[in-house]
Amino acid sequence: MAEPIDINGIIKLRHQLHSLAELSGQEKQTADKIKQELKQLPFVEIVENIGGYGVAGIINSGKPGKTYMFRAELDALPVEENLNTDYVSNNPQMSHKCGHDGHMAILLGLGRLLSANRKLWKGKVILMFQPAEETGTGARLVIEDDKFNILKPDFVFALHNLPGFPLHSIITRSGLFTSSSQGLIIKLQGRTSHAGHPEQGNSPLIAMINILTFLNSVKDKVIGCDRSALVTIIHLQLGERSFGTNPGEGKIMITLRAHHQEDLNLLKTAITDKVNCIAKAYNLEVKLDWVEYFPEVCNHKLWVDRIIQTAVQLDLKIINRKQPFAWTEDFAYFTRKIPGVMLGLGAGEDYIPLHDKNYDFPDSLIPTGIDLWWNLILNDNNQI
Ligand SMILES: [Zn+2]
Ligand SMILES: [Zn+2]
User: Fold this and answer.
1) In angstroms, rounded to a whole number, what is the distance separating the alpha carbons of residues 363 and 143?
2) How far is the CA of 59 from the centre of ligand 2 (A)?
3) What is the pLDDT of residues 64-80, one digit of tens each?
């Protein structure tokens, strides 16, 4: 039997991390707090400043075996929170509205459990606290950092709490788990003129209308109806708020999503060709900036099976997704190179959605997350 840990202490830690909320790439205090906690564990080696403020705690069982990496995220969101609790964010306009505070607490709890029960498991465990997940840049910076080379995980795992699913349920899928996505900024440059003399300028208005009409139907034309993809227009800008000026420049921002990388590529090519063609027809200069690329998370079947086996042992409800999720996750950068799994942990069917100002991580998920990872390690250790 495993020596239990004090779950209330871990919940308190979650509340402290909640108060420290910092934005992507600026998670210094949060990383300091994590390091301070990891230092209290025996047999832990700490690697800091990986890909920014990233921190890895390596716990060694002292016995040969595999190296398992579990990931949590350090960053919060630029949202002013609306909570009636005794642990609100210390920083105005910043708060943990994606539950990353809870994900970090789960890993710190796992660390304590592993340290207290070193005799019961084999191999090494890396607790990876990754920066800048919300902007999609952190995982890539971590994996490209030279310091990542010393970690050498054999397998990688992550969970994300998911409102809209039964509390404590395990949501998983073999193969594609999340979509890939790509942001695009289209800038059109014509010529401003007096509003009374539009004929002396060159407004991008009509070109923008043509581009928007095209974007609205491009998915069906290029991908067809049987495969899933989305083109979402997220922001438009034309000229300035000046009644005396005929606009000379316009901007369209869109997000593309697809379950398959080849579909994303098809959309990118079609949009690039058409936008260039329309801009040329209207004698406009055009610039396309592709930004915030997220690859798709691909789950490895063997590990999905092992997660299901573990969830059955723990009597957790298992939800096998028929379709991948339309959201994205930069954990994909890890699963591209290293086998593993990302899964959802149900936060309650009617729970407040992620990124909402009223959202707060449900503390009851902390022991569930710790138990899941702990038993997954034991189950894998026991495979011949
Ligand atoms: Zn988020
Ligand atoms: Zn998140």
Assistant:
1) 30
2) 25
3) 999 999 999 999 999 99
CA of 318 to the centre of ligand 1 (A): 23
- Report DSSP letters for 281-348, one per residue: HTT-EEEEEEEEEEPPPEE-HHHHHHHHHHHHHTT--EEE-SS-BSS--TTHHHHTTS-EEEEEEE--
Give the SS3 label for residue 186: strand
- Dist. CA 308 → ligand 2 center (Å): 22
DSSP annotation of 96 reads -
Distance (Å, whole) CA 175 – CA 341: 9
**Cα-to-centroid distance, 98 and ligand 2 (Å):** 5
- Distance from C-alpha of 131 to C-alpha of 89, rounded to nearest angstrom: 18
Angle between helices 7-19 and 100-116 (to 10 degrees): 140
Decide if pLDDT at 384 tops 80.
Answer: no
**pLDDT at residue 226, as a whole number:** 78
Residue type at 31 in one-letter notation = A
Helix H segments across the chain?
A: 7-19, 28-39, 100-116, 138-144, 205-222, 261-281, 301-313, 332-335, 365-381
Distance 97 CA to ligand 1 centre (A): 7
Contacts of 373 (CB under 8 A, 6+ apart): 70, 106, 110, 157
Number of CB atoms found within 10 A of residue 347's CB:
27
Name the nearest CA neighbour of 342 among 161, 160, 166.
160
> What is the rounded average pLDDT of the residues 163-185?
96
What pTM value is reported for the model?
0.86
**What are the tokens at 206?**
């009509």
What is the spatial distance between Cα 356 and Cα 325, in angstroms, rounded to a whole number?
19
Nearest to 204 by CA among 218, 192, 214: 192
CA 196 to centroid of ligand 2, rounded, Å:
50
Reduce the DSSP state of residue 120 to 3 states and report it.
helix
Cα of 42 from ligand 1 centre, angstroms: 32
Contact 40, 105 (CB under 8 A): no
The Cα 343–Cα 306 span in angstroms is 12
CB 66 within 8 A of CB 380: yes
